[in-house]
Amino acid sequence: MASIKTKIGRRAFIKNTSLASGGLVLGFSFLNSCKPKQVAEMAVQEMPKEWFEINGYLKIGDNGLVTILSPNPEIGQNVRTSMPMIVADELEIDWKDVLVEQAPLNTDLYSWQVAGGSRSISSSWQSLRMAGATARQMLKEAAAKAWQVPVGEISAVAGKLTHEVSGNSAGYGDMASAASQIAVPEEVDLKERSEFSIIGTSRKNVDGRKIVTGQPLFGLDVQREGMLIATLAHPPAFGMQLKSFDADSAKQMPGIKDVFSLKIYDDDFKRSAFHHTAFNEVIVVLGESTWQVMQAKKALKVEWENAPEVSVGMSMFGNEMKVNFPAGLENSTNHRLKMEELNARKGKVVRKDGNPEAAFKNASKVIERSYSAPFLAHNTMEPMNFFANVTDDHAELLGPTQTPEWMEPAIAERLGLPIEKVDIMMTRQGGGFGRRLYGHFMVEVAAISQKVKAPVKLVYSREDDMSQGIYRPSYYATYRAALDADNNLTALHVKTGGIPESPLFANRFPAGALDNYLAEDWTIESNITTGAFRAPRSNFIAGAEQSFLDEVAEAAGKDPIELRLELLKRAQENPVGERNDYDAARYAGVLELVKEKSNWESGNQGMNRGVSAYFCHDSYVAQVLDIAMEKDKPVVQKVTTAIDCGIVINPDAATNLAEGGVVDGIGHAMYSAITFKDGAPEQKNFDKYRLIRHSEAPKSIETHFVQNDIDPTGLGEPPFPPIMGALANALYKATGQRHYHQPFITEKQVLG
Amino acid sequence: MATFNLNINGETKEIDVDPSTPMLWVLRDHIKLVGTKYGCGIAQCGACTIHLGDNAVRSCQLPVSAVGEQEITTIEGLSENGDHPVQKAWLEIDVPQCGYCQAGQIMTASALLKRNPHPSDTEIETAMNGNICRCGTYTRIKKAVKTAAES
Ligand code: FES
Ligand code: FES
């Protein structure tokens, strides 16, 4: 067994706080009514008469039932099941005796209560295990004390404590009260990997039954006595602001309580990039019901005007910076021209190995290709919304957010309340994809509730949501490759940029595998706000790079997997440069696995096959995508995915997430775009913004995980970026046409 | 404002709303049945799907005044104990990711199976094409529909 100091634990575990019972019940009172039924259906014994809090992560009932608090936001990545699984495994409890509750935001107790960077599991892996192991140890100590035997002789298995020599045994419930009084141990033993009994086994979504029976779970489902509904009118275009408005007729409409303008932040408000909004002054329509406020909003008479250039001071993980938002109404056609123009100039050199100029001069073949991708809206299925009830000395917020801990200071500052008077509770969330990292809507609803002195739920319509900004940036890249007379790849040059950020990862593969390598980038300012979108930057550059490598392999007359493996062998055995940020052996490992599982070597089997592989969020993914032509239309038949993300907590749920990444990647590469005319997004709902649908999804998806003992790494994002390359490469095989510019549908191919 | 007597999940509900109010908001805001979801409001996403009689309809496009005597079934009323074959299949295949679209998917799927108990893959795709799943659970949905069809 591995011993681990509970250093973090001593600070993190506050015993017998009222938090788990008090805070949670308050926040989620609307769920209480369905609890007893849910428990009965889980075929578990009665609810306990008393709960004993062992530490901030779990409490044990007098009948042995255990409640585990899941600290992180649940956006569909299934952490509400997988995080408690980790605690339960170390605790040594039968999974059927576990109830799961959402923990409220508590930065003293939990680390990284953020759904971002695919880090939920990896950043809490140790603390979750420690929470379970600490509780197990305290139960053992309580039993040792009761039975007057050495603690080392007591075993804890599946919720039962046993002392073989004396024949004593007891359930966790019997010892829970005594255990809650035991001092937190200085050091605890973690299980060996081979001893895991829950981790690595598939467990169903703990909210599954509530989801399929339509129970209230999501932010939009929050109902409170006396609650009002608010909706916002924001400028129709980026680069515009509110001039004046006439709300007389809107105010006369049924159910409408008030209409007023609201400034979100003062000019000198200290904000982080996660607080920002493009539209700092909006019109609030407040009423009794959602339909009523949506109708009244249409009756507003508003004058908008052009906004000046603004420069906003922002902090990003401790770095202070000024971000410039230029004046003007932007257009997609100009965006494209500007990107092409900048990409034709010299960029900022980010990495240079060897002598790429000479290699290109001496090349016998040079391949050059350019790629681009449009702005995208996250379009979480559940639009932005949040509930707030702000009184003179307290603020209660409840709803869907990926970053409660980063929003709390901004809310406190905006309300003029001390931070400990702001309580944030998370609901289950109808998707995240990065959009809910940016919580301006929490500040908005808190400010509205404070002003009107009432509980308020803020609701964005789909149109509001899609036209508010925080888009995936638009990107452009040119790749060049030099081949010598023997078709060896002698140099690679990537130049890339975007609006407003560059997607370059200069130290990722194929850097390190080539003697001559040049990476440059550039950026273009814009007043259109952007934000992290599932696998930021990777979600474009992976597809571009992996499509380009396919063309290089073809020009060199090599199998595309073999070309990659050769490069990775070089990177492993004799890497160029010091700063390569990937593990070439694990990279090659997923390619080998996908090669085997897709029967790559047994030929194309009547399919048009494309391959791709990428590394991001500390994980490695390789994919093979098969297309068959049906009545002259390419149809994606099958995708085979190989993933190395270390230990997999919940394999079937992890598979589900990887399948989602595949469908998501095909969909966005193929169909989706936000374009702009005079600053206004031209797509505001799903009639114009196309998302992938049932008939366009692959007919089957197969997912394989590399089996190893490495601590878990990211999974939510990594399967998403590479599939775009595999798709483009398979489409080429199927139709003879290469695809460079997303969405591919505009390049005249149609997926069946 | 006008008074309507609606037959929802086998119970009669009396409500007083503007006749143009879509059933989606009547259900969610007035009757407090929030299982039916808002996704687009323009009949494009299927999140708001309910049954009107035996047909799957988009409740965001169904004004309360058009319902009359017809029976409405929502996800909450699809079965008494969450044991409709489609719900059971959804749990068995563990379909949901975020779960937000799934009530709509289940209502469309259950209406499909009622009128066509053994649909082909193409028939499933066609029937389900109006229901977006942003998380991309389409392959599992298809598997679950087939599982339900077999049961
Ligand atoms: S909300 Fe009715 S179809 Fe989208
Ligand atoms: S499960 Fe998230 S939208 Fe379908």
Automatic annotation (TrEMBL), chain A:
<dbReference type="Pfam" id="PF20256">
    <property type="entry name" value="MoCoBD_2"/>
</dbReference>
<dbReference type="GO" id="GO:0047121">
    <property type="term" value="F:isoquinoline 1-oxidoreductase activity"/>
</dbReference>
<dbReference type="InterPro" id="IPR012368">
    <property type="entry name" value="OxRdtase_Mopterin-bd_su_IorB"/>
</dbReference>
<protein>
    <submittedName>
        <fullName>Isoquinoline 1-oxidoreductase beta subunit</fullName>
        <ecNumber>1.3.99.16</ecNumber>
    </submittedName>
</protein>
<dbReference type="InterPro" id="IPR006311">
    <property type="entry name" value="TAT_signal"/>
</dbReference>
<dbReference type="InterPro" id="IPR008274">
    <property type="entry name" value="AldOxase/xan_DH_MoCoBD1"/>
</dbReference>
<feature type="domain" description="Aldehyde oxidase/xanthine dehydrogenase a/b hammerhead">
    <location>
        <begin position="213"/>
        <end position="308"/>
    </location>
</feature>
<dbReference type="InterPro" id="IPR037165">
    <property type="entry name" value="AldOxase/xan_DH_Mopterin-bd_sf"/>
</dbReference>
<dbReference type="InterPro" id="IPR000674">
    <property type="entry name" value="Ald_Oxase/Xan_DH_a/b"/>
</dbReference>
<dbReference type="Pfam" id="PF02738">
    <property type="entry name" value="MoCoBD_1"/>
</dbReference>
<dbReference type="InterPro" id="IPR052516">
    <property type="entry name" value="N-heterocyclic_Hydroxylase"/>
</dbReference>
<dbReference type="InterPro" id="IPR046867">
    <property type="entry name" value="AldOxase/xan_DH_MoCoBD2"/>
</dbReference>
<keyword id="KW-0560">Oxidoreductase</keyword>
From TrEMBL, chain B:
<dbReference type="InterPro" id="IPR036010">
    <property type="entry name" value="2Fe-2S_ferredoxin-like_sf"/>
</dbReference>
<dbReference type="InterPro" id="IPR001041">
    <property type="entry name" value="2Fe-2S_ferredoxin-type"/>
</dbReference>
<dbReference type="Pfam" id="PF01799">
    <property type="entry name" value="Fer2_2"/>
</dbReference>
<dbReference type="InterPro" id="IPR006058">
    <property type="entry name" value="2Fe2S_fd_BS"/>
</dbReference>
<dbReference type="InterPro" id="IPR051452">
    <property type="entry name" value="Diverse_Oxidoreductases"/>
</dbReference>
<dbReference type="InterPro" id="IPR036884">
    <property type="entry name" value="2Fe-2S-bd_dom_sf"/>
</dbReference>
<dbReference type="GO" id="GO:0046872">
    <property type="term" value="F:metal ion binding"/>
</dbReference>
<keyword id="KW-0408">Iron</keyword>
<protein>
    <submittedName>
        <fullName>Aerobic-type carbon monoxide dehydrogenase small subunit (CoxS/CutS family)</fullName>
    </submittedName>
</protein>
<dbReference type="InterPro" id="IPR002888">
    <property type="entry name" value="2Fe-2S-bd"/>
</dbReference>
<feature type="domain" description="2Fe-2S ferredoxin-type">
    <location>
        <begin position="2"/>
        <end position="78"/>
    </location>
</feature>
<dbReference type="GO" id="GO:0051537">
    <property type="term" value="F:2 iron, 2 sulfur cluster binding"/>
</dbReference>
<keyword id="KW-0479">Metal-binding</keyword>
<dbReference type="InterPro" id="IPR012675">
    <property type="entry name" value="Beta-grasp_dom_sf"/>
</dbReference>
<dbReference type="GO" id="GO:0016491">
    <property type="term" value="F:oxidoreductase activity"/>
</dbReference>
<keyword id="KW-0411">Iron-sulfur</keyword>
<keyword id="KW-0560">Oxidoreductase</keyword>
<keyword id="KW-0001">2Fe-2S</keyword>
<dbReference type="Pfam" id="PF00111">
    <property type="entry name" value="Fer2"/>
</dbReference>
